[in-house]
Specification:
383 residues, Urease, subunit C, domain 1, globular
């Protein structure tokens, strides 16, 4: 049975603006009203009325790139998906793309099918992200070199079929044979193609963006850096004004001043992601990412054999706080990087990421110091 909720007396941050003494109304899974003052009283009775008491109310966070949490990965089927979702939901993430590391195509087919099943039953699951296997060996990071491959047409078709329309993003290295054709095929199927784990130079990355790629996977990581005579993929992404730059803002992957550089170099096009692995919300210790051994110490995940960073233990509320406190990003801009920008990156700008009439009833109530105090997803109180 559909229920209605009113949240009033909020400092509402959405779409780059802040409105004081604001209210929103949810009916079922949709926002049906928004205003200021006591206007909510004119909307009729609601099943639940909650006062924000002057705290921040923002849209639910959207994570484009996340591998797991709570000791589980999204490769672990229905139980693993639910375990990881619970951790991220508690930290304000109301919609999430389940990321898969490189694996043999037949294994990825099974994993994509499980995520498609989850997306059918749980609105928090937006679909899947294939972070590989079409990656560059030199820049593979925490991916098994034995399973990396070029993007041949048969593999592309098999993966698209297995996802049953729920493949939201695929990361590939555009410099390898077949990559540009794969970009076109994925893009034609409605999949956002990301450049990442790549040895591409500026011109090659720019050609990929011109061919239809629209995301840069965890910018600055898994790619060539910025040099004044060889600007590399990051500057190519800044140059191509349709490209979204993912940033893992955990204080490890990217320095706070470089985070600020990304926001200034690509205004309105930075999406903060977690790239979180199973240790998120769990204990330090030994883990497996895909088929590779990972050691987590002081919350930092690294491959046991090479020391490469192996994802993060980040949650999006922490990314928000770091952006505002450590990098000096305006709250409105930082919230956009968790809401409207990731929604647009996967073609959901029309129904996700804003607290406006007709949008999904996803919201997060934050304290003055940006700690999560309550979460609503698809109109239901989740925490």
């Amino acid at each position: 049975m559909s229920t209605s909720t009113v949240i009033h007396s909020a400092r509402l941050v959405s779409g780059g603006d802040t409105v004081s003494d604001a209210w929103v109304r949810f009916d079922g899974d949709t926002i049906t009203g928004r205003g200021i003052g006591d206007g909510w009283l004119e909307q009729g009775p609601a099943d639940a009325v909650e006062s924000a008491a002057g705290r921040w109310l923002v849209p639910g966070f959207i994570d484009l790139h996340c591998h797991g949490a709570g000791g589980a990965s999204f490769e672990h089927g229905a139980d693993g998906i639910e375990t990881a979702l619970a951790v991220h939901t508690a930290h304000g993430t109301t919609r999430l793309v389940c990321s898969l590391v490189s694996a043999p195509v037949e294994r990825l087919e099974r994993q994509l099918a499980a995520i498609a099943d989850a997306a059918a039953r749980d609105p928090r699951v937006l679909g899947a992200h294939l972070e590989g296997p079409f990656l560059d060996d030199e820049f593979r990071g925490a991916h098994d070199p034995a399973v990396l491959r070029t993007a041949d047409p048969e593999s592309v078709d098999r993966l698209l079929a297995a996802a049953r329309g729920t493949l939201r993003q695929v990361t590939l290295a555009p410099e390898h044979p077949g990559a540009l054709d794969a970009i076109a095929k994925f893009a034609d199927a409605g999949v956002a193609v990301a450049v990442g784990h790549t040895g591409a130079d500026y011109d090659t990355a720019l050609a990929a963006f011109e061919a239809g790629a629209s995301i840069l996977t965890h910018a600055f990581n898994g790619m060539r850096g910025i040099h004044h005579r060889a600007p590399g993929p990051v500057v190519a992404a800044m140059h191509a004004d349709h490209v979204t730059l993912e940033i893992v803002n955990d204080g490890v992957h990217v320095h706070p001043d470089v985070v600020r550089l990304a926001f200034r170099g690509a205004p309105g096009r930075v999406a903060m992601i977690t790239d979180a692995m199973a240790a998120t919300g769990h204990a330090d210790g030994d883990y497996v990412l895909g088929s590779l051994d990972v050691v987590v110490q002081a919350g930092v995940a690294r491959l046991r054999d090479t020391g490469s960073i192996a994802g993060s233990t980040l949650t999006l509320d922490e990314a928000l706080r770091r952006a505002v406190v450590d990098s000096g990003i305006a709250l409105e801009e930082a919230v956009d990087a968790l809401t409207v920008t990731p929604a647009a990156a996967i073609g959901r700008a029309g129904d996700l990421g804003r607290l406006e009439r007709g949008y999904a009833a996803d919201a997060v109530l934050l304290s003055d110091d940006l700690a999560v105090e309550a979460v609503w997803g698809a109109g239901a109180r989740l925490g």
